[in-house]
Amino acid sequence: MIIITDSAADMSKEEAESLGVHVAPLHIQFPEGGVSSEEITPDEFYARLKAMEPEIPTTSQPSAGSFTNIYKKFENLKEEILSIHISSGLSGTLESARLGAESILQTKIHHFDSMTLSGGQRFQVLAAAKAVKNGWGKQAIFDRLKAIREQTEVIYTLETLKYLARGGRIGRVQALAGLLLKVKPIIKVDKTDGKYSTVGKARTVPKALTTIQDYLSSCYGTDTPLLVSVMHGQYLEQAKVLAGMLQEKLNVTRLEILRISPVLGVHTGPGVVGAAVVPAHLVDNIE
Length: 287
Known about the structure:
By secondary structure, this protein is α/β, with parallel strands linked by helices. The protein folds into two domains: 2-26 and 61-150, Rossmann fold; 153-284, Hypothetical Protein Tm841, Chain: A,domain 3, CATH 3.30.1180. The protein is built from twelve helices and 13 strands. Strand 11, helix 10 and strand 12 (251-259) form a beta-alpha-beta unit. The longest helix is centred in the middle third of the chain and has 16 residues, at 118-133. The two termini are 16 Å apart.
C-alpha cells in the first residue's frame, strides 16, 4: 500500500523519503508569487513573514488536479493507495483529494480523515507506514488509525493573536480584545469535529504552558506510556521548557522537538508552541 499525506503532517522531507511517504504540498502565496510549503525552510519562511508585516501571506490547499496527478503516478501499480490528510474540519484538502481520485480507479484509493493536523497527523502517517512495511492488511491499518485518532491530543498556545487576527481565523473584536489584554489562548483540536476549541486563556506564555501540562495530565494520567512531539514555529526556548514540563508530569517514553510546517505558521506566527501526544503502544507496537 502506498501512503500519501500533505504538508500539514509536519514531516521533514528526509523522514517522508525514508518511510516512502508521498507528500502533497500545500502552498503559501506571497505578494511576489507562490511557493510550496515543502520548498521553504521554517526560518526562511519566518524571515519573509516578518519582512512583509503588517500584511501576511495566504495559504492554499492542493487542487483536485494536483491530487489526480499524484494518484496517476501509481495508476499502473498493483498497490492500493492510502491518502491521510489534515482534518476536514480545518481544511478542504481531503475533499480535493477525493475529487482528484474521481478520474482514477477509485477502488485502489482509500481516504482517511486524520481529524487533526501537525504532530497528531504525523503519528497516523508514521503508524500507517510502519504497518505497511510489516505487511498489515487494509482493515487492520484503518482500525489502528482510528484508535490513534481517538486517543491523540494536539494542543498549543500562541505568543500573540495578531497572525490569527490578520488571517481572519478569529473574530476581529475577539482578536482586538485579546491583543489589548495580551491574552495567550490555549487551543486544542477537538476530536469530535476536527476543529479548534479553546481550552483556556493565560496572561503569559509560562502560565499557558502550565495549562497545557495540566490538560494533558488530566487526559493521560501518570501511568500511560506516551509518545510526545513538542511542536514550535521559531520558539525553541519555550519548546524546551514545555518538553521538560511534560517529562516531569507524564510517563514519556519518547519525546522529540519538531518544527511546524511553514504553511501552518502563516496563521500562528513564529511564537507558537504546543504538543501532540499519543499512547506509545499505538505507534510503536506494530509488528
